Amino acid sequence: MIPSSELRTKHNVACEIREMLETVRDSDSTRALPYLVQALVDLLRSGEPFFQKDSTEYQFRRVLFETLNRLPVNDVVKSKLSTIWACMLHILRHDNEENGTTACKTLVDLVRGYRVSTEENVSEFVAIFQEAFSNMKGLVNQYLSDDSSPLDQNVSLPALRSFKVLGEMAMVMVIMSQVNKSLVSTAIQGTTLPALEVLALECSPQHTARTDYEAMGGVWAGMCSGLRNPGMYSDFIHAQIKASVPGGVVSRFSLHLPDVVLSCLCDAFLWRNCGFLRGNSCFKCTATASRLPCEWYSFEKGTLHMDTTPLFPHPFTGVDGCLPASDGHPPSTSLVQSSR
């Protein structure tokens, strides 16, 4: 353990270096960047991850990470791309939620700025992405159940057990597919069924509130009052929406999962968890929902199949196919905003 006085000194120096990067322009300064990158990567990989937000160790690692994330796009940094990429994957596997989110944004910047991705890089990232998917059900049960305890706001979750990080990883997959479609097309298909499993998740308080409300002829929208961790529920919904985006990319690569199926799945998720369909605040039905108003696609043991359960519990009535609320009018915009 580093003595607190020494650690505070290192933290202050790291803050100064982070701010200096904003003014790095001349050639003498850029020549030092490879040494800075290597030092930052070594510190992040060798250092112990911390999850207590108010600790000096946590804040010191945050500054190191922010410094690495602020590196300018140039050929000097490009020579260290493989080192930085490996460091970001290490952070996703072992570090906290905040650093994992920043790691994903750094990966997006690397792919966009340097247009470089290899089969090995993609495979390693997809493996981590799949592991994060497998943790989501346990995370929902732990923090979004009826008997869940409130989350300590001073504690950061592990990156691989974070709704925020899962959503950001989905965005990395999308950017990689845009830059190198042929390289990503095969690997990304391995994330389709895990993404659908995450879309199918519904926390128990929301399920109870929705089914009770619909049993009385109403249309449920928003967040139920029984949730102990409303902030995490919001992160959960955003993660589900983002997790569905790479599936749209898969549908362009493969005939096994048509656009109409993915669109129907997304509509069903939004209806079940948020009480609205994609479109404007008046809850307009999408073209897909209009084509398949009473069909639902579920999955079991890796196989998609059609069920006869109605996708939407209420008929499409009203102007422009708007869904009615319990009083026969479209739900208010405020309900839609609160559920996002």
Largest sheet: 2 strands, antiparallel
User: How many domain modules?
Assistant: 1
Assembly state here? single chain
Rg, nearest Å? 23 Å
Q: If helices are DSSP runs of H or I spanning 4 or more residues, what is the number of helices? A: 17
Helix content: 55-70%
Number of strands: 2
User: What letter string, H or E per element, gives the SSE order?
Assistant: HHHHHHHHHHHHHHHHEEH
Strand order of the largest sheet: 1-2
**Which whole number gives the mean pLDDT?**
75
Report, as a whole number of angstroms, the end-to-end distance: 42 Å
Unreliable stretches (pLDDT < 50, length at least 5) are: 255-260, 275-340
Coarse structural class: mainly alpha
Shape estimate: globular
Beta-strand share of residues: under 5%
Protein architecture, described:
The structure is a single chain. This protein has a two-stranded antiparallel ribbon with strand order 1-2. The protein has helices at 4-20, 27-30, 33-46, 56-69, 75-78, 81-94, 97-114, 119-143, 163-179, 181-188, 192-199, 204-215, 230-243, 245-253, 259-274, 287-291, 333-339, and strands at 296-300, 303-307. The chain has one domain. The longest helix has 25 residues, at 119-143. The two termini are 42 Å apart. α9 crosses α10 (181-188). Helices cover 61% and strands 3% of the residues. The model is unreliable at 255-260 and 275-340 (pLDDT under 50). It contains 17 helices and 2 strands. The chain is mostly helical.
